[in-house]
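Troubleshooting log. The previous structure file for this entry was overwritten by mistake, so regenerating from the original sequence record. Sequence copied from the archived sheet and checked twice against the printout by T.R.
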Amino acid sequence: MKLCEICGVRAARYVCQECGRSICERCIKPYSWLCLECHKRILAPGEEAEEILPTPFMKMFFLGFILMFAGVIILLLASLLSGLKISLGGIIMIGPIPIIFGAGENLVLLIILGVVLTIICLIIFLVLLKHGIRLSR
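Regenerated output below.
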């Protein structure tokens, strides 16, 4: 087992892309694949080393998801507390396997709507995949 060439304590599992030294997980900058020393040397003078945090896009995505989830819960609770009859349906996709559930008077319409929306999303995904458009960085 080869030890890290920087700290000399942990097992070296990575190789610096700049100098070629064997380094451990604590002595590497994961987004640049550089050892700590090369990362400091390559930085422009006066530039501070920044840790990669989630991008503003990802922060907004998670905020939007949380707000939508909270809105659905509030609507569900409001309809339950008002005494109205409600219909509920949904689809959970685990890989290519759909799990369809629902309850209420309009169950069939909700399930059909869910299946149609799922098919549309899969078609859009496959078209984007075919054209080589990356959905992530």
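The radius of gyration is 25 Å. Archived copy saved in two places this time.
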